[in-house]
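Homework-ish question, so no full write-ups if that breaks the rules, but can someone show me the predicted structure for this set?
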Amino acid sequence: MIILEILAVALGGAVGAPLRFAAERAGASVTTSWPVGTFAANMIGSLVAGFSAAFFVYGHNGNWHLLGYALISVGLCGALTTFSSFCLQIIDFAENKPSVAWAYSVGSLVLGLILATIGYQIGSGL
Amino acid sequence: MAYPEPVPSRELYRLVAIGGVIGAVARFLLSVVLPHGGTAWPWATFVANILGCLVIGYFATWLLQNLPPISVSAQAARIRAFVVTGVLGGFTTFSSFAVETHAMAAGGRRFMALLYVVLSMVIGLLAVWLGSRLVYRTPEALEEDEVTG
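A: Not a homework solution, just the prediction itself:
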């Protein structure tokens, strides 16, 4: 089973990381005053991962839920979202635009947690 | 962030995808080695995120000091796409971090959830700074390198 899980994670990662890259490039073409692309990727990923955690792990039984969780939560959402770029961007903005660093970090944390909760509740309801 | 034409978009996307697969699978294997229950402290994600922050600080500064900006350097654009966006972006995760925090808080472990957020942020930011310091060289030192070759 673990081989299949690894394949599912790899497939999700192969889709999630390029999606984030696309979001970053699209965001940078709109504005460079704050990292809107990474923000969008992290927020959408948190919503979908919240849904996936409830839907695949607690909502249903059977072996296929392990693969669904590996594909969507671990692979797709895990690679669509990033914690390393998030922290790097905060450090980058902290020097010259501390207000952006604060708004971006606190906003991401609060909204990300809210979206994960909403996703989880939608996933438990199905 | 306008990318130069020398590196076709298709190639950058391929590098990000390959890096993303490597990072995501590495994170999954870490979670196999460090498993955790629903509301327990998520060591695997915590370690992956902090480690990723350390390495991204190192690489971002290394790129700045050793190569021209990605807008003009094809090599810098490739390395950044593969290492920073692909491998490190795939290895670290914001979504698991958010879902785990919710699981702890919803499971009644509110203090642990708060501690998880605060420690991830504080140590993550310190790790970026530390990684950057490990490779940072003063403008004088860089200039000396250029003079002596």
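Now go work out the reasoning yourself. Hint: The mean pLDDT of chain B is 93.
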